[in-house]
Structure formats: C-alpha cells, structure tokens
C-alpha cells in the first residue's frame, strides 16, 4: 500500500510539473541542461553523495544535518511560495505566513506530512524550471543516471546510508502501516530526472500541435512517456517486494523514460522530428551564437 501511495504521488508530481513547464514564461526562471551538463550530472552528484557519506561516517550527522536542513528547507519554502504565486498584497502576506508556518512546523517536528508537502513543491518546480534541451540530452542524462543509481545502491552502501541518515525534504516519506516506526521512501531524483523527459515530451506535443495547427490537440508523447514512468514505478515496487532490499529505481525508470518516446515516434513516423526538436531556450541560444558568428566573420 505504501508503494502505491508513493507511486501515485510521484506520477501526480511529474504530471503537474510537466504542465507547469508549458506555461512558464519568465526566461530568468528557465534553466537549460545540455549534453555536457547531462553527462556531468552524475559526476557532481556522486562526489556530493560520497562527501556526505564520509561526513556521516566519520564526523556524525549533526553539522551536515543542520546545514542541509536549513538549505533544503529554505529552497523548498521558496518553491512553495512560488507555487502559491500571490498577486495582491493581502495574498502575498497570507502566502508568506502560510509558508513560514509550514516550514517552521517541519523544522520543529520533522513530520512526514509537512516534509512531503515541501518536497512536492521542490520537485514540481524543479521539473517546471529545469529544461533538457533535446531528446538526445535527456537520453544521455538518464543513461548516465542509470549507471550511477545501480552502482551507488548495489555496489556500495553510500546511497542508502545518506538517504536514511539525513532528514531533509528531498524525498517522499510514508509511514509503514503494518510496522509502526518504519517508513517507505522515494527520493526526489527518481521523480525529477525522469520528469524532465516527461516535461520535454509535453512541450514536444505542444510544438507538434502548433506546427500542424491542430485544434484537437492530442498529447501522445506525454501520455505514453508518463505511462512508461508509471510502469517503471510498478516494476520497482514489485522488485522491492520480491527482493526485500533497496532498489535503484532508475534501473527501471531510465529505460522506460527513454524507450517510450522512441517507440511512440517510431510508430507515428516522427523519429526525425523527435531528434530535431529543441526547447525554446536552446533555439534562442543557437540564434545568438549564429548571430555572433556572423558578426565575427564580417569583422
């Protein structure tokens, strides 16, 4: 039951974040990930993870817990405030008070509900603001994280130690209904990283609808990629139940999130369009680079 609840929360978060990504109009809040950054993601992630593991093992968790909890709580609070998006002065005042109250309750009690609430806003806003610039970049990112997740879960105790040793709003947590005092969890990385591919497919669907001027807008890429993500979560839960041990969720989620768009494009005979599609930010960047190149040649 806990796995079903966590999976449902993850699917809802990915869908909401993907919807928000198509409505994001402020260029300053859009952060593009290219192939180079995608390849470096697991490297920096691994170094950070190992660093936290060493601190936990040799120095204890008090100091790093305090630092990460403060930073994570602040970041989540800002995302929560952004989600409320108040317009009036009264609305802004109420939103600030509500955000402060929820954040204070989490920091004071570490309750799983307020932790999940802050984690949700952090994940949904990350999917909304972070943009992989193309399908190829998304495939590189998920393929690298596929190897990263397998190594740090199966090859070492680093991932499990850090995930269970530090209490910050960077995971969904549900109390075990049959074993009081124990919790089931799903890290935000297993939501946000595949979610970036889902959000890209959502924007690809919008792009196709605008290109073909189709009033009856369909979203085949969003639907099938989200379905594949759901299937990956289901397989993860089955593996957890069968092996009774921690599982690298991206072992199942990464291939599902890469293959779904590919198979959809192959079936619809749109493979060329899929690989050619670039997010708006990358297109504008390319234009600026082209203009700069022309100016240099002229000079």
UniProtKB/TrEMBL annotation:
CC annotations in GO = cytoplasmic side of endoplasmic reticulum membrane; lumenal side of endoplasmic reticulum membrane
Does the UniProt entry include the keyword Translocase? no
Q: Where in the cell is it found?
A: Endoplasmic reticulum membrane
Matches recorded under InterPro entries = Peptidase_A22B_SPP (IPR007369), Preselin/SPP (IPR006639)
Which Pfam families does UniProt cross-reference here?
Answer: Peptidase_A22B
Chain segments annotated as transmembrane: 37-56, 63-84, 135-154, 183-201, 221-243, 249-267
**Can you supply a Gene Ontology BP term from the record?**
membrane protein proteolysis
Does the UniProt entry include the keyword NAD? no
Question: What family is reported?
Answer: Belongs to the peptidase A22B family.
- Supply the name of the protein: Intramembrane aspartyl protease of the perinuclear ER membrane Ypf1
Q: Which gene is this protein's source?
A: ypf1
